[in-house]
Amino acid sequence: MKTDVITLDGSKAGTVDLDDALFGLEPRADILHRVVRWQRNNAQAGTHKVKTRSETSYSTKKIYRQKGTGGARHGDRNAPIFRGGGIYKGPTPRSHGHDLTKKFRKLGLRHALSAKAKAGELVVIDAASASGKTSELAKAVKNLGWKRALVIDGAEIDANFAKAAANLDTVDVLPTQGANVYDILRRDTLVLTKAGVEALEARLK
What we know:
This protein folds into 2 domains: about 1-45 and about 95-205, Ribosomal Protein L4, Chain: A (3-Layer(aba) Sandwich); about 50-90, no CATH class. It has 7 helices and 6 strands. The protein has helices at about 20-25, 30-45, 100-120, 135-145, 160-165, 180-185, 195-205; strands spanning about 1-5, 10-15, 120-125, 150, 170-175, 190-195.
């Protein structure tokens, strides 16, 4: 399908053909959900840890005699029933990640791109280049009406554009290899450069 190409000042810069295999699919929420869940689980640190009864700092002396107290039978104060005792079956450091095939991850990225295209939240620009001034880029973004945008460039990001966008919390910039489903879906507007479109089509074929 054809779509218009614009510049950062809002003027037209021709058109570009978008591959229907990447941008023309009917988005499936189940595929997007599985890929996002895979991403977020892999990103989870898994460093949670509690102390068991062998790691708490109470004495291991039996706290009172076994019989004759009229109360429950207890050993030491490290038992989970007591305040300050060890935690029973608490979290331990582990990986939350799970496997997802490369083929399925590519499919998820295609559906994310298609979801943005179908929702009218896809913009193609001629090039992501700037003078390096944050104020100038902020003004251009405001004039274009981008509230929360993700800009995906080609293999490399223009250094001045990255510098100008660094202090804008409404603009994220990624190279093509960094394009992922979670970041695409969490932003209101997906902005692709012409180089980014070509690189994505080469990556996802």
